[in-house]
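Cast an eye over this sequence plus tokens and walk me through the fold:

***
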Amino acid sequence: MGSNCVASTSIGCLFCCKGCSAEKVRNAFTFIPPQSSYTVEAESMEDTDNGKMVYLMEGLEGSELYRKAADASTVRWVTTRTGSRVPLVWLRREKLNPREAAATEPPLVLLHCHGNATDIGMMMGPYYELAKVLGVEVCGVEYSGYGASSGRPSSANTYADVEAAYEYLVSVGVPPKRIVAYGQSVGSGPATHLASKKQLGGAVLHSPLLSGIKVVDPKPDACCRPSCVWSCFDFYPNDRRVRQLLCPLFVMHGQRDDIIPFYHGFRLHKACPKQHRWPAYFPARAGHNDLVETDMRAYFSEVSSFLQDVRRIAEGQKVEPPSFDKPSQVRMVVKPAEAEPRQVEMAEVARLEGEEQPEVKVGPEDGRYEQLRKGNVMVPGGFADAA
């Protein structure tokens, strides 16, 4: 029996183990809510919709970077169309860079959809780094069933979560063309959904997946693959939605990713319409959770270059996707950045390179994807051979 047939059989067994519930099978692939790393303290008894983040994990509370991030942020509660109450944490320019608070042009806002096995509390350090180095604001959206949110995790709920965050930003005056959806790992699902439905300035996909079921395909181009046999279970159809994008797309994916294989990012880049396809960044030595750490300067320079084009478009300038010698427009090897100091604060990057920070996981490192590719079904206490 071929590897695709074995993997497809294992998903059938998982379907039976989950009471023949397609939703439970999807959740078994995807969602791993950790113990909440934070709570939200209301600003006052009269205003319970606004608050501040308070860390519950000792490692975060003791980190200077995370303390700075909490001081530079505000937390706003929103209610989604599915009834969940979820917090948004927003790192604002007036607190991050007071000297720029009087700038005439509004800043870009990264609407960040985090990955698995984490929450917005654990992501505060990366949020602060993105904001300080790139000169943007960052709004992190929590998922239903994660962190301090109500509700339960599901793909449908993550769509409602990110839509509620987007509607809130627009309602308080952020121009849609200055909102950039940033989806990391599983977060690529809600980010791509939003980019195919709403007006945005751009979208960034960081270690993304083609779709939920395609993650477990052992041989993606052979017959009997799980994504074909069990297409009714599929979710986060990013490979279809990137064809419907309404804004520029920038894809990043490490070529050594052993959680979501590199070809996912490569094929998403190729599937994007040419008028929205910005050059991708595919570092050869990076994996799933270390794309930033492998080469921090290259990462920030690549993201900054894309955001600079988004700014120009938001200001009414005509900007075409940069072209390269290679027809695929892929930067497999990154040359030294030529960004202006305002675009990328290299002094800030140098400081970050020298600091040890709490490790943030954004993907399932329990081996579930690899085990399912091998035909092993996850059961309480471990894995069982489905073949």
